[in-house]
Amino acid sequence: MGNLLIIDSGHNEYVKGKESPDKSLREWKFNNSMQYKLANRLKSLNIDYYMTNPYPQGKDEIGLITRCNKANSYWKNQGKPNCLFLSIHANAYKEWSSARGVEVFTCKNCSSNSTKASRLICNSIYNGVKNNIDKGFINRGSKIEDFTVISKTNMPAVLVEYGFYTNKLDLEILKHKQDELVEYTLDGICSYFGVNYSSEEKYANGNYNKKAKTTENLNVRKGRGTNYDIVSTIPKGSSINVNYCLNNWFSTYDLGTLGYVSGDYIKFL
Ligand SMILES: [Zn+2]
């Protein structure tokens, strides 16, 4: 049985407040953006996922207990696989205050697996930001608090506060470094599940002229980008000859005419 990540995106659009003092970021938007970026990457890491709050747009809060119940019943229906519940949030303190950094919560009397996940994810996010983005980032550490979503869920559960949208330096990270935050989080999640973490694969520009296998149903397009028309779709698991790669898009002549495919959905044989 595989590993399952239950993603819990905090807050819905009609929540009051919860935005940066300059109104450039609302917390629910950050959380929602992060949940989809995470989900998109989990496939290639062989981790299944379920979202308790997939559509926060145009809605009032759906209720914390509702989200717990959704998580608990999904997990049970799946036969209780190896699982982690991850609630996504961003933090707030006084307007433009100096409080900043990442902290990850577990509930009182939580399982040792929750504690383990909390430490791994907190350290991974902290080290990633400190080493690659901002040396002044702060590790506020693993903390204990009986938040509903992590105390009423039946599986190991953590709540991540990625940084403070009331701090100018953290706000920049929350707005512009989401892909990086996702990778650091995944690194921690993979350590927790004991699976290999590999960062998103991007191919170098150049001539390949090699055979590859499609890892999904693959669209062949008229140009290098999803904004170009689809010429044809090659089924998942087919083999395909790819030629020149530019910005992760390969040219191919397999359809008898020039077409382009994304490098995200092929694997070289
Ligand atoms: Zn929140």
Automatic annotation (TrEMBL):
What PROSITE patterns does the record tag this protein with? SH3B
Q: Which CDD domains match?
A: MurNAc-LAA
A GO MF term = N-acetylmuramoyl-L-alanine amidase activity
Tell me the InterPro entries matching this sequence: MurNAc-LAA_cat, N-acetylmuramoyl_amidase_3, SH3-like_bac-type
Q: Which GO terms describe its biological process?
A: cell wall organization; peptidoglycan catabolic process
The residue ranges of the SH3b domain are 208-269
Gene3D superfamilies xref list: SH3 Domains, Zn-dependent exopeptidases
- Quote the SMART domains the UniProt record gives: Ami_3
Q: Which domain of life is it from?
A: Bacteria
KW Lipid metabolism (keyword) present:
no
- A GO CC term? outer membrane-bounded periplasmic space
Supply the alphabetized keyword list: Cell wall biogenesis/degradation, Hydrolase
Instruction: Tell me one Pfam family matched here.
Output: Amidase_3
Please give the PANTHER family that the UniProt record associates with this protein: N-ACETYLMURAMOYL-L-ALANINE AMIDASE (PTHR30404), N-ACETYLMURAMOYL-L-ALANINE AMIDASE AMIC (PTHR30404:SF0)
Q: What protein name is recorded for this chain?
A: SH3b domain-containing protein
Organism expressing this protein natively: Romboutsia weinsteinii
